[in-house]
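USER: Please consider what follows.
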Amino acid sequence: MQLPVTFREAVAAHPVSPLVRAPGLLPVMIKQILDLGAQNILMPMIDTAEQAEAAVRAVRYPPRGDRGIGSALARSARWNRVGDYLADADEHVSLFVQIESVTGVRNAAGIAAVDGVDGVFVGPSDLAASMGLIGRQAHPDVVAAVGRVFEAVRTAGKPVGINAFDPALASAYLEDGASFVLVGADVSLLARGSEALAERFVTGAGR
């Protein structure tokens, strides 16, 4: 897997911090993402506290974790130009985990309580599918399951967020205590924008 090395530079002029979604609980690949300079990791498909603990180990140096040492060759430490990087790296890395299944909902409290998990992100599409409601993220049972995750994570004193492209649902989740909500994606924004232009200038002009 080849990752772009400029994601930090792309947002450097703005008051934001990029969150990089790892492809899975793959320690070698997670190490590569961190060494490239990512400071905020989102780990998908976490179903149990044990998996969350494994994710924590993957993003931390020993003795707390098992992230491979390679800072002398890594962009993250600016090739050993960041003093005490190995000792202080934990202070610069955050880990968010995704709960996206019925099992994850059932174990949400334990997942959120894991030391080293900084927050939780709910994936309602996969959650709906795991509940036998594929494509029905707004189904009351799915919304209720999301609410249970919210409560468990907030009880643990950690932020919780969710993916909700439906504006009404996004607003409802914010009212229910979501710390952050993903309300759009580049590909969907491009698709909807091009459709709107086509409707206005192509379809409309032909009427």
About this structure: Residues 186-203 form the longest helix (18 residues). Residues 1-5 have pLDDT under 50 and may be disordered.
